[in-house]
Every structure is written in structure tokens, then in C-alpha cells.
Amino acid sequence: MKARIFVTLKNGVLDPQGQAIAHALGTLGFDGVSDVRQGKMIEIDLDEKDKTKAEPKLTEMCEKLLANTVIENYRIEMD
Amino acid sequence: MKTAVIVFPGSNCDRDMEVALTQATGTPAQRIWHKDSTLPDGLDLIALPGGFSFGDYLRCGAIGARSPIMKSVAEFANRGGHVLGVCNGFQVLTETGLLPGALMMNAGLKFVCRDVHLKVETTDSPYTRAYGNGGVIRVPVAHHEGNYIVDDATLETLKAEDRIAFTYCRPDGTEGGNPNGAMADIAGVLSGNRRVLGMMPHPERLADPRLGGEDGAKLFKGLVDTMATA
């Protein structure tokens, strides 16, 4: 099965890259963009087919490596 | 005094660190490959050098922090060993959890490579004791991710426990001169037992008058003095 991990900066952590993107969108004439936050998406192919068994494994991967939980949140999607 | 430098693929300040340590201690610093899992016996200090370990993939220092050797480095630190992380080495130390906080992309989004001025905020550590009454020193920085961030409660702890080793300042010691947006102008922090130091600026790059200055040399001198009296 395929899992997708979305890693985003926690609320309150400044995101200068997001701010630069927001600024560039404004320069291109896109109005009404109040905020931009940049994150990353990691795709993982797992041999495991059972979601309930895969989820704790993916959570452990996030906690141990994929996200830095000092500054980042993560969300797991499976299909 | 026995010292060692950990070398990761992508480290590029390991030889500078090796020279600075060898000059300060009079004993050749050992180089240890990241895939080794054990450390030589009797080490007094382990240095994690600057560079771009594993190409900064995923996050700066993230992959290096999970290298086989880092388990032994963490055990060494937890037994009371001295560990110095400079630049990418600081990033590795925060990623292993040996130091609090994280290093984010510079607020100005640009790589900054120039000399900065640092205020020595505490002389109560092996690394800063040789700076006498503190004062201002000049040391180079070269990084893209040096924007130190830590949660408010931990910041208060760092202040209360006098664990902020260096802050960015102007040449006259006044507030300003922060090259990367780091919280509270923090350039370097100490562990609770004051034996682990992480800092973004490079003392090893200005530890010899032939390189244009020796403000960095006192950091290594302080370590040698500490070991001599230990």
C-alpha cells in the first residue's frame, strides 16, 4: 500500500519561505492570499496491506525521522 | 587530551576542526567515519564538524543524527563526555536531542558567509572560560539554516540556567548584527551539564593568526585548560 506523510511547520513557527511565496503570488496579481505555509510530502510504499498495522509503523517513522517534532507536525494518509 | 572529529559524507570543515584541535592539544585529533559504531577509548572531546552531511536531505543534520556512530556519541555525552558541534554539527546535535531547539532556514532566505560578532554570554563552561570576562569576539559564519528556534518555556530555562553561550551582536557589543533571525540572537547553547556546546559560527576557522585572527582559539584553549585541571 501507499502512504503519504504531510510534514508542516507548527503554528507559530515563522515560515520565511511561505512568506516569500505569498509575496511572489501578490506580485503576480493574485489578490486575497492572506498566508502561505510551505511543507513537504513524503510518499512511502509499504509491503503491509493492513492499515491498522501500518499506522503505528508510520507514526514511529514520523516520530523518529520524518518530522522534527520540535518545529513540525505530521499527518498520515493511507490508501 | 584526546580528541576526535566525526566525519559524515558531506562534512567539509572536518579538516579545519582537526587542525584546530591538534594545534590546541598538541595531540593529533582522530577522524572517525560515521559508519563506525564504536569510539576509541579514552576520548576527552568529540567534535561534530560543519558541512552538509548527507546533502542536507530531509532536514539539515537529520540523516547524520541517525548515523551508526551517533548512538555512541550520545552515550558518550550522557556519560558526561564533552561534545562540540559547529554549524552542521550543531544541527546534528539538535536533531539527536542532545541540545534543545532546532535550526531553521535563515530569515533572509539567503546563505550567509561572513564574519559576525559574538557576545560571550557566559564564561561558566569549558568552551568559554578562556574568554575571561566575556566581551565581544569575531568569528565567521557560513550557513543557510542557522535560525535558532526553541519553545518559550525552554528559552526561559536556557536563560535561567545560563546556558546561552554566545549571542550575535554588533562590533561594539550592542544589540543587532543577527545574521539569520535566530531567536534571542542565540548563536550557541550549552547542555544542562555544560559539556555539550552547539554553535553556528566557526571558531576553528579563526584559530590561527595566519587565517586572519585567533578569537576562536580561546574556545579550544578553554577545553585544554579544563582537561588539564580535571
Unreliable sequence segments of chain B: none
The number of strands of chain B is: 11
- Specify which chain pair forms the largest interface: A-B, 11 and 20 residues
Going across the biggest sheet of chain A, name each strand in turn.
Answer: 2-1-3
* Terminal Cα span of chain A: 6 Å
As a percent range, the share of strand residues of chain B is 15-25%
In N-to-C order, the SSE pattern of chain B is EHEEHEHEEEEHEEEH
Assembly form of the protein: heterodimer
Give the helix/strand class of chain B. Answer: alpha/beta
Query: Helicity range of the residues of chain B?
Result: 10-25%
Number of helices of chain B: 5
* Strand tally of chain A: 3
Q: Can you give a write-up of this model?
A:
- The complex is a heterodimer of chains A (79) and B (230).
- By secondary structure, chain A is α+β, with helices and mostly antiparallel strands.
- Chain A is 35% helix and 27% strand.
- A three-stranded antiparallel sheet of chain A has the order 2-1-3, with helices on one face.
- The longest helix of chain A is centred in the C-terminal third of the chain and has 16 residues, at 51-66.
- Chain A is elongated.
- In chain A, 11% of the residues are buried.
- The model of chain A has no long low-confidence stretch (mean pLDDT 96).
- Chain B is an alpha/beta fold.
- Chain B has five helices and eleven strands.
- In chain B, the strands form two sheets. A nine-stranded mixed sheet of chain B has the order 2-1-3-4-11-10-9-6-7, sandwiched between helices. Chain B has a two-stranded antiparallel sheet with strand order 5-8.
- Chain B is globular.
- The termini of chain B are close together.
- Chain A binds chain B through residues 13-14, 16-17, 20, 64-66, 68, 70-71, and chain B through 58-59, 62, 66, 94-95, 100-102, 104-109, 147, 149-151, 181.
